[in-house]
DNA sequence: CGTGTAAGGAATTCTGACACG
DNA sequence: CGTGTAAGGAATTCTGACACG
């Protein structure tokens, strides 16, 4: 019935709204993009668009920054956990393929 | 872990994005508000903000309009189904209260 | 009734740069 | 390094109105 998880990922929020939602200045938000911590899409005319997932990511970044963590380190951590997620995903994908071929027999 | 259903209801999308998402013109979107078919919030400076739920509502409105249904009739239908939902909600609420008092005994 | 459009103004967003530290 | 700010321009949004039908 609903479109499910897509709401969280759809990039539809403008930078001004993101600023309100996160408490960060637009300057900060753009800077974190420059440091590759966040990846907004662009509208046809070049305006940044963010998702709710991006907003949450920015809130985490803000927390880290308050603890004195530098953007470089935050990026390292993000890449690390992304690799872990990728491994997990590939593992599940593989399990699915094995099941499809050798698991439940359909014919 | 996630914030759950709130993504769908949060009013964070500007009218330009809603226009892209629905294929409606801004004029149309504002007119449907005037006809009380849709209820955006306003930012501090007066800009309209819509939710994903609003976007879906607008898509339904657009479909109805294509079928030649007038805004007045669409509004009637909306009010009708809203009343039905309210009845259902009150019913469930009542059931919950009854269970809380006479159902599962906690002491 | 439903939608297009031109009008004028106000708010938004963008980029590149200088500043401080 | 991380963030503020002034700068100038382009795109966005708003309202109220006239138009057509």
Automatic annotation (TrEMBL), chains A, B:
**Coiled-coil annotated spans:** none
| Cited PROSITE patterns | HTH_MERR_2 (PS50937)
State one Pfam family annotation. Answer: MerR_1
Q: Which UniProt keywords apply?
A: DNA-binding, Repressor, Transcription, Transcription regulation
Gene3D superfamilies per the UniProt record, alphabetical:
1.10.1660.10
Q: Which residues form the HTH merR-type domain?
A: 12-81
InterPro entries membership: DNA-bd_dom_put_sf, MerR-type_HTH_dom, MerR_fam
* Protein name (record): MerR family transcriptional regulator
